[in-house]
Amino acid sequence: MQIHKYDTVIVGAGGAGMRAAIEATKRSRTAVLTKLYPTRSHTGAAQGGMAAALANVEEDNWEWHTFDTVKGGDYLVDQDAAEILAKEAIDSVLDLEKMGLPFNRTPDGTIDQRRFGGHTRNHGEAAVRRSCYAADRTGHMILQTLYQNCVKEGVEFFNEFYVLDLLLTGAPGGRRRSAGVVAYELATGELHIFRAKAVIFASGGNGKFYKVTSNAHTLTGDGQAAAWRRGLPLEDMEFFQFHPTGIWKMGILLTEGARGEGGILRNKDGERFMEKYAPTIKDLAPRDMVSRSIYTEIREGRGCGPDADHVYLDLTHLPPEQLDAKLPDITEFARTYLGIEPYTDPIPIQPTAHYAMGGIPTTVRGEVLADNTEVVEGLYAAGEVACVSVHGANRLGTNSLLDINVFGRRAGIAAAEYASATPDFAELPETPGTFVTETLTRLRDSEGGERVADIRRELQETMDKNAMVFRTEQTLKEALEDIGALRRRYRNVSVQDKGRRFNTDLLEAFELGNLLELAEVLVVSALARKESRGGHYREDYPNRDDVNFMRHTMAYREVDADGNESIRLDYKPVTQTRYQPMERKY
Amino acid sequence: MSSTLTKPGPGPEAAAGTSAAAHKITATFRIRRYDPEVSDKAVWQDFTIEIDPKERVLDALHQIKWDVDGTLTFRRSCAHGICGSDAMRINGRNRLACKTLIKDLSPEKPITVEPIKGMTVLKDLIVDMEPFFQAYRDVMPFLITTGNEPTRERRQSAADRERFDDTTKCILCAACTSSCPVFWNDGQYFGPAAIVNAHRFIFDSRDEGGEQRLEILNDKDGVWRCRTTFNCTDACPRGIEVTKAIQEVKKALITRRF
């Protein structure tokens, strides 16, 4: 087992991790650990754009952006954080341009902007052009640009180093400090301890517990699960976003920018059904509303296809030149995976599990919270793994590429400044590798006979069926029961690859453990939230209940003296500044 | 198919063949296996599975790994051609496993899957990517500017932006570099991907590092090694005109205009 020492260690090399790394490397000795290669991160799959009130093409300002973010999040957003997000958005976009990002341009040569769901002029009057974009590959350009600048700054990467554990001093409930992380080197199977004064988790989402998802195979909640196992809370995990336009059955993302460019959703009768649900901004309503509307159409028998199980994204009225210039990638996806020509035929779509609004709770400086008020010294998180909370109950499109840049930068600066001001490293636990060694040995040596793929498939099936766009007490209880049974079976899971080199069989087994634990947190949090808000819709409680539920869920893992695990739920107040909750209409 | 969608009909899904009653075929995947912990020799191994031909080669590899042989090892992440993890040689041609549908591979015959060429194989379909990324880093793939930073964005006309659009699409999957016969014979050659990424900056009107990059590529292992076989262009899963980009860099070296 090798031991390394760095001032700052960043876990994950997507947008948030690399944005943090650019800042941290300038200020402290920094290492970035990623289970992939940096340019493989899922930031690269983001398409439509990054919101900022540049006002390059029409009147706009950050206050309108703040309001849209708060309203889009169904008032569960912490308003101080949303204000920072919207204000710093402008410099964030300009910083990326200066780093070389090739944005699309206006005729004047400034950054071009387009419409996106839920972004409006003057508090909801009409859709506004706020999304800064590079065709439909904005995430790809952000990921490439940040990696290029990491190369420029000489950021030190440890590629294919999989962080499996977080090391903390102290015990849950007491004062805690980060001591480092334990990483598994894929190439050799060797364990590495990275001691660090500051650790930043930027390890992305956890959508792989759903079957139809836009998430990469590798989005297995590794950071959330590591924090969870060490007794840190997870905030608002019941809020998961279903993006309205995933390729039917496959879940591959087709950007909301397609509707920003004028695309229309239609049911089997050719009806533009969003006119009924959001008369003002129609197809550009926030994602939670559009996804519910699609499933309402399907449930009421107006779905398309032989099984009436999807609707159409219609781009056929848009000029082919516009599709080629503004939406080249998604039109190619339709051709490659469906054999459909979007110039002439509508594209079959269905909502796809897309984004975790919840995650590891942080302050606006990226500091991880150990409870409602106390921070864990030296521990930070940013991006999808974190919950600041700028997305509340439903994230607006283009606010996640923004989030990773604004809060990635903030976390990078705060972590490196903390590391520089802190003379000593925290003591390592006596046997820092114990959890990882024991877990991997158990998985490798087990002859239980349960297969990873079977358990994962069943987990995804129950989550799709019971904890997706529409939920009830009954479906959630069913999911909880299923997950409990799957967790018991998981104890007997075994792998076929017993080797040390690139043992992805073993790591998939570990990842499944993460997904099972996090799915349970989602379902338990969702059961307790007896209201409907944003992405969490309870058919048995169809209204928002501000009296009882205008508060963040804080879930904790508890283990009793006999080693039995349970989930305890607590709540945290929402920070409200300018905006009083109103009915959410579009 | 009418685009007005006024009549209920079979819908485009019928054309796409993705209806619920998708039929499966029997297909054999002949995969190049290598695990130095087991043997120092690489071998071919056949896996015959039932699979819907509209599925991706990556789906087949997963089916084999998940249901038949967990030791089969390959890289993958996004599964839709944007992360660049799963470039491999499929039926003798470099492609992304997640962008290649089984039906397009004559599945009545065994489909061969092997690691991309010219790079050290570490296990099964996994190769050592470090030399590839080193060549990329060597061309200074970042915007170089002098003088004070502007307060707002740098202006760039839509035409100037369009000039290097093609080479911004690169996902660093190495399909091009590992299809290049010059690279197979001489691993010191920068290779198409590094040149594509140099092109992306050389032809960016905001950049001032063009001369430095051109000098790097004027090296004996630089652009002059290219023999314009177009393998790279054929291999690129993003449709980048790689050979054209290399030719433009050569031309810029001669004329010093870019």
UniProtKB/TrEMBL annotation, chain A:
<dbReference type="GO" id="GO:0009055">
    <property type="term" value="F:electron transfer activity"/>
</dbReference>
<keyword id="KW-0813">Transport</keyword>
<dbReference type="GO" id="GO:0008177">
    <property type="term" value="F:succinate dehydrogenase (quinone) activity"/>
</dbReference>
<dbReference type="GO" id="GO:0006099">
    <property type="term" value="P:tricarboxylic acid cycle"/>
</dbReference>
<keyword id="KW-0274">FAD</keyword>
<dbReference type="GO" id="GO:0033765">
    <property type="term" value="F:steroid dehydrogenase activity, acting on the CH-CH group of donors"/>
</dbReference>
<keyword id="KW-0285">Flavoprotein</keyword>
<feature type="binding site">
    <location>
        <begin position="12"/>
        <end position="17"/>
    </location>
    <ligand>
        <name>FAD</name>
    </ligand>
</feature>
<dbReference type="InterPro" id="IPR036188">
    <property type="entry name" value="FAD/NAD-bd_sf"/>
</dbReference>
<dbReference type="InterPro" id="IPR011281">
    <property type="entry name" value="Succ_DH_flav_su_fwd"/>
</dbReference>
<dbReference type="GO" id="GO:0005886">
    <property type="term" value="C:plasma membrane"/>
</dbReference>
<dbReference type="InterPro" id="IPR015939">
    <property type="entry name" value="Fum_Rdtase/Succ_DH_flav-like_C"/>
</dbReference>
<feature type="active site" description="Proton acceptor">
    <location>
        <position position="287"/>
    </location>
</feature>
<dbReference type="InterPro" id="IPR030664">
    <property type="entry name" value="SdhA/FrdA/AprA"/>
</dbReference>
<comment type="similarity">
    <text>Belongs to the FAD-dependent oxidoreductase 2 family. FRD/SDH subfamily.</text>
</comment>
<keyword id="KW-0560">Oxidoreductase</keyword>
<feature type="binding site">
    <location>
        <position position="395"/>
    </location>
    <ligand>
        <name>substrate</name>
    </ligand>
</feature>
<dbReference type="Pfam" id="PF00890">
    <property type="entry name" value="FAD_binding_2"/>
</dbReference>
<feature type="binding site">
    <location>
        <begin position="400"/>
        <end position="401"/>
    </location>
    <ligand>
        <name>FAD</name>
    </ligand>
</feature>
<keyword id="KW-0472">Membrane</keyword>
<feature type="binding site">
    <location>
        <position position="384"/>
    </location>
    <ligand>
        <name>FAD</name>
    </ligand>
</feature>
<feature type="binding site">
    <location>
        <position position="222"/>
    </location>
    <ligand>
        <name>FAD</name>
    </ligand>
</feature>
UniProtKB/TrEMBL annotation, chain B:
<dbReference type="GO" id="GO:0009055">
    <property type="term" value="F:electron transfer activity"/>
</dbReference>
<dbReference type="InterPro" id="IPR025192">
    <property type="entry name" value="Succ_DH/fum_Rdtase_N"/>
</dbReference>
<keyword id="KW-0411">Iron-sulfur</keyword>
<dbReference type="InterPro" id="IPR012675">
    <property type="entry name" value="Beta-grasp_dom_sf"/>
</dbReference>
<keyword id="KW-0479">Metal-binding</keyword>
<dbReference type="GO" id="GO:0022904">
    <property type="term" value="P:respiratory electron transport chain"/>
</dbReference>
<dbReference type="GO" id="GO:0051539">
    <property type="term" value="F:4 iron, 4 sulfur cluster binding"/>
</dbReference>
<dbReference type="InterPro" id="IPR017896">
    <property type="entry name" value="4Fe4S_Fe-S-bd"/>
</dbReference>
<dbReference type="GO" id="GO:0051538">
    <property type="term" value="F:3 iron, 4 sulfur cluster binding"/>
</dbReference>
<comment type="similarity">
    <text>Belongs to the succinate dehydrogenase/fumarate reductase iron-sulfur protein family.</text>
</comment>
<keyword id="KW-0003">3Fe-4S</keyword>
<keyword id="KW-0560">Oxidoreductase</keyword>
<feature type="domain" description="4Fe-4S ferredoxin-type">
    <location>
        <begin position="160"/>
        <end position="182"/>
    </location>
</feature>
<dbReference type="InterPro" id="IPR004489">
    <property type="entry name" value="Succ_DH/fum_Rdtase_Fe-S"/>
</dbReference>
<dbReference type="GO" id="GO:0008177">
    <property type="term" value="F:succinate dehydrogenase (quinone) activity"/>
</dbReference>
<dbReference type="Pfam" id="PF13237">
    <property type="entry name" value="Fer4_10"/>
</dbReference>
<comment type="pathway">
    <text>Carbohydrate metabolism; tricarboxylic acid cycle.</text>
</comment>
<dbReference type="InterPro" id="IPR050573">
    <property type="entry name" value="SDH/FRD_Iron-Sulfur"/>
</dbReference>
<feature type="domain" description="2Fe-2S ferredoxin-type">
    <location>
        <begin position="27"/>
        <end position="119"/>
    </location>
</feature>
<dbReference type="InterPro" id="IPR036010">
    <property type="entry name" value="2Fe-2S_ferredoxin-like_sf"/>
</dbReference>
<keyword id="KW-0816">Tricarboxylic acid cycle</keyword>
<dbReference type="Pfam" id="PF13085">
    <property type="entry name" value="Fer2_3"/>
</dbReference>
